[in-house]
Predict the structure of GNAT family N-acetyltransferase.
Amino acid sequence: MDFTCGHHRGVVVLQVRVLKPKDAKEYWGLRLLTLNQHPDAFLLTLEEEQKRLYPIKRISALLKDPTRLTIGAFIDDRLIGTITLQKESYKKIKHKASVLSFFIEDAYRNKGIGRRLLTEVINVSRRLEIEQLLLAVVSTNTGAIALYESMGFTVFGLEKKALKVNGQYFDEQHMIYYL
């Protein structure tokens, strides 16, 4: 699955493709960078993520997991954004999937890359006959919420004090998209 946008000279080429185990090291680097840039948007802290054993090996294994699909956005062959689709495997909830690990390097935000990645996840979900996409987003992340709402996601719940970062609480909105 390879997709390319903007194929003109002098124009930045955005490539969107499914990540493979060989992309694990670059994924890890981008995750640490974005975790540092937006500590309130992730479940784990930067320190917790850095303490995990064998991170490249662990990420490589996740990228091989048949219930997960991670799509990356590349500019000049450099990973600048990712989104993961986590499919459910139990029979009664197999029609659902979660959107996880959606992050874009700050320098590339507000350029349509998030929309492109989310559109790809929706398209892949349709091909996989997934009927519902679920996600959780920190309530202060207004840019992400605006993107999700513009794509058709709706809030179905609010978890008060879902995260606590340096003594400060953050609520999370739970959103759903019906395909």
Observations:
- Helices lie at 24-37, 46-51, 55-64, 113-127, 142-150.
